[in-house]
Amino acid sequence: MPAVIEVSCINCDMCVPECPNEAISMGTRHYEVDPLLCTECIGYYDKPTCIAVCPLDCITLV
Ligand code: SF4
Ligand code: SF4
């Protein structure tokens, strides 16, 4: 279940440096998660840290 960033992302940059796997990068219009790199932060944090830091709550696990 990788994290997915929704279109409401405002590219605030909060989540990008927090990802332990560097799975978040700029897409066509907003940041996107590479599902092959996202590990839900297992081994690093108790919860997905990108979700914890996003001020818009626009990241979900799917
Ligand atoms: S859940 Fe963790 S590993 Fe996955 S994109 Fe977010 S910060 Fe990166
Ligand atoms: S923290 Fe949320 S709003 Fe900010 S860039 Fe990441 S997904 Fe987008």
Proper CATH architecture: 2-Layer Sandwich
User: Helical element count?
Assistant: 1
Silhouette: globular
Taking all Cα atoms into account, the compactness measure Rg is 10 Å
User: Structural class of the secondary elements?
Assistant: mainly beta
Based on DSSP secondary structure assignment, what is the total number of beta strands? 4
**How do the strands line up in the largest sheet?**
1-4
Rounded to the nearest angstrom, the distance between the terminal CA atoms is 5 Å
Average pLDDT metric: 97
Helix content bin:
under 10%
* Whole-number count of domains: 1
What fold name stands as the CATH topology?
Answer: Alpha-Beta Plaits
The sequence of SSEs as H and E is EEEHE
As residue ranges, the low-confidence spans are none
- Main sheet specs: 2 strands, antiparallel
CATH class: Alpha Beta
Small molecules held by this entry: iron/sulfur cluster
Strand content: 15-25%
Keywords: Iron, Iron-sulfur, Metal-binding
Domain 4Fe-4S ferredoxin-type: 1-29
GO molecular function, one term: iron-sulfur cluster binding
InterPro entries: 4Fe4S_Fe-S-bd, 4Fe4S_Fe_S_CS, YfhL-like
Characterise the protein shown here.
This protein is mainly beta. The protein has a single domain, classed as 2-Layer Sandwich (Alpha-Beta Plaits). It contains one helix and four strands, in the order βββαβ. It has a two-stranded antiparallel sheet. A hairpin with a 4-residue loop joins β2 and β3. The N and C termini lie close together (5 Å). The model has no long low-confidence stretch (mean pLDDT 97). The structure holds iron/sulfur cluster (2 copies). The site of one iron/sulfur cluster has 15 residues, from α1.
